[in-house]
Structure formats: structure tokens, C-alpha cells
Specification:
The chain is an all-alpha fold. It has 2 helices and no strands. The two termini are 24 Å apart.
């Protein structure tokens, strides 16, 4: 491989904050549009947007953590 030492990288809760903000904006916007425009019942909102939020959160966590590690390596951040 390339010999890069990944032990020096610390992501902490950085990616989690961005995932919460991105997924929260998407899901909350979807809930408001569905509720105000189409008058969906609450059970349908939960059935659609709860799994959507979970899947988006799981799907975005790895790429955002990778971006955080790449930024640390690019800018040579040390402990």
C-alpha cells in the first residue's frame, strides 16, 4: 500500500454533526411538504421518513468520515 499512518487521524464527532444537519434538513423538509401539501396521516409520515432518515444516516456516515480523514491528511493535522 502507500504507507500512510492512519493512527494519527482523529475524526471524533465531526462527521456525525454534518450527517445530523444534512439528514435532518432533508427529512424535516420532506415531512413538512408531505404534511402541508398532501395531508399525509402521521403513520404514513413515520413509515416513509423514519426509514429514510436511518438509511440516509447510515449511507452518509462513511463518505463524510472519509472526507474528514482526507482533509486531515491533506492539511497535515497532528494531535
Amino acid at each position: 500500500m502507500c504507507g500512510t499512518d492512519f493512527k494519527a487521524t482523529q475524526t471524533g464527532d465531526g462527521p456525525v454533526v454534518f450527517v445530523i444537519l444534512i439528514v435532518g434538513a432533508i427529512v424535516c423538509t420532506g415531512i413538512m411538504v408531505a404534511d402541508f401539501s398532501y395531508h399525509w396521516p402521521m403513520a404514513l409520515n413515520l413509515a416513509v421518513f423514519l426509514p429514510m432518515g436511518a438509511l440516509l444516516s447510515l449511507g452518509l456516515m462513511r463518505p463524510l468520515k472519509g472526507l474528514m480523514i482526507a482533509a486531515q491528511l491533506k492539511y497535515k493535522v497532528k494531535d
